[in-house]
Specification:
There is one protein chain. With 218 residues, this protein is α/β, with parallel strands linked by helices. Helix 1 packs parallel to helix 4. The longest helix has 22 residues. It is 34% helix and 25% strand. It is globular and about 45 Å long. Helix 5 links the parallel strand 4 and strand 5.
Length: 218
């Protein structure tokens, strides 16, 4: 059975509402790997030009704040109202609102860039083309998009993880693991052109390589 938008959006929203405080404490922006930070910095340089930049899946707002520090007029969008509340409290000078990357409440061709770090991992395969179509719709011509996601292992039989508990909270959260080639192909189908792909091997407690894909709307 195909999962409806409301099914996965509601489950993801409720799960992150439940774990918002613990997640924010465990994953502050200061824990970004130096390579991750350098790629966000490169994205920021490409996105400079005055138009606002959307951080999709902004969580507690640390990366949105980093973009602001880098001179980018950034705002955050997150599915979880609790995450948005934490972000507004931590960064009152910045704008955050609730929303879904599959249906952005953003005017067409208005964004100077889109950042989506570890947020597309919760979007089922059937709905990811819709999200990338929204990226294309809302970006200005020439504007960049930077994605980051945990990478699917070669030959992995079940590229999906379901969690029913995290930080001692009961949740219903799915993670979808993909290869770089899968995501690049979907971006191309949405009309987004590849600039670069970077793979970072696992560090510390990480168990999967990280893939970063930089693309743009032609």
């Amino acid at each position: 059975m195909t999962e409806t938008s409301e099914d996965f959006l509601g489950a993801t929203r409720g799960s992150y509402d439940a774990i918002a405080e613990e997640y924010a404490a465990r994953y502050p922006s200061s824990l970004l790997h130096p390579l991750d930070r350098s790629l966000v910095t490169a994205f920021a340089e490409l996105a400079r030009g005055g138009a606002p930049v959307a951080d999709l899946g902004s969580g507690p707002g640390g990366v949105t704040a980093l973009l602001h520090e880098l001179g980018v007029p950034a705002f955050g969008v997150d599915l979880s109202p609790e995450m948005v509340a934490l972000a507004r409290e931590a960064h009152p000078q910045l704008r955050f609102h609730t929303g879904s990357m599959t249906s952005l409440d953003i005017p067409s061709a208005s964004l100077g860039g889109i950042l989506a770090l570890y947020s597309t991992i919760h979007v089922p395969d059937a709905h990811l083309p819709r999200a990338f179509a929204e990226f294309h719709r809302t970006l200005r011509p020439g504007a960049p998009v930077l994605l980051a996601f945990q990478t699917r292992h070669p030959g992995e039989p079940v590229p999906r993880l379901h969690l029913s508990e995290r930080f001692a909270h009961e949740i219903t959260l799915d993670y979808y693991w993909r290869t770089a080639d899968q995501v690049i192909a979907l971006l191309a189908e949405a009309g987004l052109a590849l600039i670069a792909t970077v793979r970072r091997e696992p560090m510390g407690e990480e168990t999967r390589a990280r893939t970063f894909i930089l693309a743009r709307r032609p």
